[in-house]
Structures
1.
Amino acid sequence: MLDEDLLSFIQGSIRSVWALELLLLLRREPDRTWTAEDAARELRANARLVSDQFAGLQTAGLIACEAGCRYAPAGPMLDALCARLETAYRERSGQVIKAIMAGPNDKLQIFADAFRLRGDDR
């Protein structure tokens, strides 16, 4: 079972397994600056998906982006959580994936809200 701190970090900062894979890729080479195209090639994904994930990871304070993106957590606590996340994913990937899937999904909420009846605030 994942501890509460790690679970909160996952659900608050990692929006998808793609974001996790991208974060771990950047973490493995912290001095390298990645373009969306380079990371997409490495992860066998498309560049638009990687760009979207870059944005989320940057907002979470886990990477820095200028001409490209690199691993740059906003503080030592975030770096420690990333290290723990990497270990947990290697040792208990199913639990980590389950935690990601249980986290908030803004696109799903927007879709659900589209079907809310006007004046229905429940």
2.
Amino acid sequence: MPKVIDHKKRKDLIVKTALRVYDEGGLKEANLSRIAQEANLSRTTVYQYFKDVSDVFNYLVKTQTDKILQKYLSEEWSQGSSSERLRRITADIIDTADKYKVEIIRFVKSINAIDANIENIVHHRTAKLRLFLSRLVRGGIREGSIRKCSSTEATEKIMAIMLSYGFMLAYFPESAEFSRTSVTDYVDYLSSSSSKS
């Protein structure tokens, strides 16, 4: 009977191994041969999935941003005013970052060493999340739960603060709480109830 291979599980194993190898040995050690060895896979198997280390990290960004977007587009998040939903979603994103802190730290530390274009890839892959958050802000302005503002600028500020949280976790963990509270404070500021006080 032929062996059934779970390709997604195998790709995820390669990604997790790549993050660990990079974290332990830096860029010099983060090559597909070493990743294959550490994942107990043949080099040929790894090359069937990824052409190079940059391809591994691009896959990581794609799968994670797709997962995030699917989660927040679900019905459970559509309850309440736009400002309440924005508050819940941004808090959940930060809580999820805390849950996967080790992986995020490894990823953030590897970004510049792996691919100079990865920042553009992250920006491109988070475009749908930005659009979704922008729609929430616009909806909140229409319903009166969010103060009048540029939805694009508000969304970019929210995204910048959330992305900075990952950077702070990696390089300034003692200051990461500042970024965490900044997201909440900014969303509270956007809330029209804050503007009435």
3.
Amino acid sequence: MIAARGEAPAKPLLRTIVVRARPGDRARGWLTVGPFRLPCALGPAGIVRRKREGDGATPAGTFALLWAYYRPDRKRPPSGGVKMRAMGKDQGWCEDPASRNYNRPVRAPADSAVDHMWRADRLYDVTIVLDYNFTRRKKGAGSAIFFHHARLGLTPTAGCVAIRPDDMRKLLPRLSKQAQMRIG
């Protein structure tokens, strides 16, 4: 790409994020994309080929980045090619396999198991929805698999992939509209 006079050249958008577990520590991994190699948190059960609801595992496979939620009461993150949606205070995600809304966004509180996304701990301030069990949904195969902010110390997630907030701020504007995450 050629930049206009006086402007820095545009950085290419990144398409494939690769996540692998660290040897000897299945709940932590490395996230690699373009020039970035970032530490990440995974589920305590590590990366698995057969995910089940509540197993604490991160699913293996290649998943599109469908869209991202952000907290509108915080600074809006630069998004690159990932479609951004403002999160409402009642934003939730259904984790009840018996519900018709299983693995779908819902308004909380709801009458079933719901992951409340408007959180005080800031984990979901930026939350990218992965196309795991979403487009082709299977009840009980796992829900709410996101790419989001990690806790201090990169402690395990419930099955998501999480990176430090500073790393997310660097990475998010560089992601392509066609970005996908390859786990395993």
